[in-house]
Inverse folding.
């Protein structure tokens, strides 16, 4: 097959990911597990992971299943991370990584039992041809699995342009994926749609780290951590030593729909609310998440109560957040 240049317009986002060694796809390992279970991975001898990124998925499968995995990616930098990952996970004997473009896979036809990719085709302009290539290298009776994003509703041209410019991705509408699937010739197709990845603001909290010492509240603070922010409580963070930061989130009640996840975003400045001093050199803070110094949120769950009038909701107030930070 003549090599065709992949018409990706902008690889900057992926270049940045390759540089720092991070790749991801929607749904994490749970999505990978579901996809591979639909592909009957437990019966596969050899699987091809196209656009393997930093090799997390390939190493995961090799560890979990009795299956050899070949990972391919268009980026040498990604492959270097993948090889490191395989070494660290001690699956080098079951995984092999090769440089390849999904538009021109360097394998004979009908080779693999399972061929899958996660968050790759969105970055490829010629999606029809990419899918044909995935099918070509899958053995008859084998499985092709895709975990890709789609637009549920037609986005505005500005939104499409913004996603394209920031990530290089060209995300299809559901109907476009459907048409691609239909003309692919694949039989017994299973399509599952998941929440659209939008995030909803739920609550927030803040703390001035230099005033982290806890005080007795002069009023009923419903059991929440209380800080005075008085000058007498000023206590700079000692360099190189962990300190505990405890603060509350604004009490709220929220029902998480099934399948949703919680995302916590931590910033070390809040320029909308506070004037942040400019320090030179800027201090570096590290958030500790080790077993010795775990950071955590206490969330009182109440599966039965959803109304603000319920007395049980008051327990939502007892929801402190403990972050362990130290300066370096
Ligand atoms: C968003 S990352 C996802 C990586 C991995 N599948 C994961 O789930 O972590 C997209 C990956 O696709 C690779 N990629 C992009 N275009 C490709 C192409 N034409 N052929 C092969 N890999 C490609 C990128 O280099 C990158 O590693």
């Amino acid at each position: 097959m003549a090599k065709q240049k992949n018409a990706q317009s902008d690889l900057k986002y992926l270049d940045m990911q390759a540089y720092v060694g991070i790749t991801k796809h929607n749904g994490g390992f749970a999505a990978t597990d579901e996809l591979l279970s639909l592909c009957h991975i437990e019966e596969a001898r050899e699987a091809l992971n196209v656009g393997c990124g930093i090799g997390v998925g390939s190493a995961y499968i090799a560890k979990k299943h009795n299956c050899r995995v070949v990972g391919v990616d268009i980026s040498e930098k990604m492959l270097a991370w993948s090889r490191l990952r395989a070494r660290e996970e001690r699956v080098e004997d079951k995984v092999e990584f090769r440089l390849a473009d999904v538009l021109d896979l360097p394998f004979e036809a009908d080779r693999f039992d399972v061929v899958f990719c996660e968050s790759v085709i969105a970055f490829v302009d010629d999606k029809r041809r990419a899918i044909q290539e995935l099918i070509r290298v899958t053995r008859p009776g084998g499985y092709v699995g895709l975990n890709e994003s789609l637009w549920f509703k037609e986005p505005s041209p500005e939104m499409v342009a913004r996603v394209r410019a920031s990530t290089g991705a060209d995300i299809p509408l559901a109907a476009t994926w459907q048409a691609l699937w239909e003309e692919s010739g694949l039989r017994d197709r299973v399509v599952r749609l998941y929440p659209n990845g939008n995030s909803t603001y739920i609550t927030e909290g803040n703390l001035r780290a230099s005033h982290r010492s806890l005080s007795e509240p002069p009023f009923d603070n419903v059991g929440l951590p209380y800080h005075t922010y008085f000058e007498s409580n000023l206590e700079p963070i000692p360099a190189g030593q962990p300190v505990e930061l405890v603060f509350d989130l604004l009490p709220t009640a929220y029902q998480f729909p099934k399948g949703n996840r919680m995302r916590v975003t931590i910033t070390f400045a809040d320029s909308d609310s506070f004037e942040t001093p400019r320090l030179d050199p800027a201090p570096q803070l590290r958030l500790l998440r080790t077993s010795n110094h775990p950071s955590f949120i206490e969330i009182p769950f109440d599966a039965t109560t959803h109304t603000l009038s319920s007395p049980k909701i008051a327990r939502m107030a007892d929801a402190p957040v403990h972050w362990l930070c130290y300066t370096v």
About this structure: The two ends are 54 Å apart (CA to CA).
